[in-house]
Amino acid sequence: MSQPLLDKVYLDDVLVNFSVYGRYHAVTAVWITLAMIYSGIIFNNHVFVTEAVQYRCVDNHDARNNGSALFKVSNAHDALSWCTNPELCTQWVYDNPNSFAAEFQLACQDWKRTLVGSAHNFGYMVGLLIVGPLSDKLGRKPLIIIIGLIGAACGLAKSFVNFYWFYVLLEFLEAAIGDPSSPLYMLSIELVATKSRVKYTTACKIGLSIGGIIFPLMYWLISYWRTFLKTLYAPPLLFICAIYYLDESPRWLLSKGNTEAAVKIIDNASKMNKIEIKENLAMLSYEEDASLDFKTVLVATLKSRTLLKTFFACVTWWITSTFVSHGLSINSVFLKGNKFINYALASVVEIPGNIFAAYLMDKFNRKLPLIFSFVACAVLCAVQPFIPNDLLWLTISIYMVGKLVSTTFFTITYIFTSELFPTYTRNSMHALCSSVGRIGGLAAPQTPLLRVYWSGLSTVLFSVVSLIAGLVTILVPDTGDKSLPDTVLQAEALSYTKTDVQLEENRAGIARKNCNEA
Q: Is this prediction's pTM over 0.85?
């Protein structure tokens, strides 16, 4: 007779022995955060690389020039008027001849500038469908290394490109197979016990905000976009070093039946922290749907009415999060004042936004904080366009608080999504939700074009979308006090389980069934 499952040791029971402040998790967090900083730097660098510049028409035959050789396009309305008759102008000169728009001759083609950002988000959308399943199949660590190196190579290649559509292609590829943030996040969430998930993943995710602070200040200092890209993408070639400083996720190793490797990592971590593991690691086990491959479990996940409803809610959160959070960052350069400082400030407020999210999740779990942050952002975005222009301090303050709250719901969305699906498909479902949700990311870079009609149209749109997401959140169960579900059955049980007691009873029921069959 096979060993009864009741005698086995589960990973969550072992991980509670580790403090996130211990040497092992602290060192790992530093490396994950550094890699996240890189992801934060590359994510929206197109905001400044492809920034708008003023341009003039050189055409001595145009009567509107009144004999002058130059006609200056000073704002969006003038540009719209002039560019509706492009045949009147045969040559353009740019205020900054070394800009992206000038080198690719994008006068009267603002859509080509913003298309770069949409191509990046579309690439990220497609890439998550590739990276997520590969991460579940090949492991977190190999994907982090491979993707980091590919991203660095694509970024360096962009700095040499002279053909616009090739640049767009590289932007797409960089986002699709060159951003390691997804497997990095999944690694951080799987390394710690339930009670430490929020604080550990939040600490690591702050790296994204730090990257958002660094890159506008870098561009302010470097200014020439090609030099900026070379400076930006050369250091990430050191991702190869992750072979030595990162361990694979023990949870992933157990899901693949590689108990020996998982035990070795845990044993080395305990030695680094100078602690003794009381549990018998030789009996370390992992619950999974027996004899089922990835495709079968994924289909089972999506066939479940409960999990399908959860999937719909998660996709709505992601669409809203990417659209509103990234949209607010992109549009921050249009606030009065220094655009580089404004963008950096929008990234700075992400740090307290992450900390605020961690505090709310620690005190009130997941559901109520998510509803609150969506509704709060809706109110702040709705109010912002109607603040008098002469109250600059109030305009920027309301805008930045809105950005802070959007970071709060984005952070909650990240961790909430990963807690609602079984481990065997967690990264894949998280990536699928994130991927479909990048529809919002596709739209966000285009929102500056709405300023032609009304400067406040973007923020009002952000308000409406946030409010809808807050209402949808009512459909899902809370997960703050529950262990990560390992199976589809456990993931479904979240809808009626209130504490870990019921989840453990579910585990025990599965164990008794398997024991009787044995």
A: no
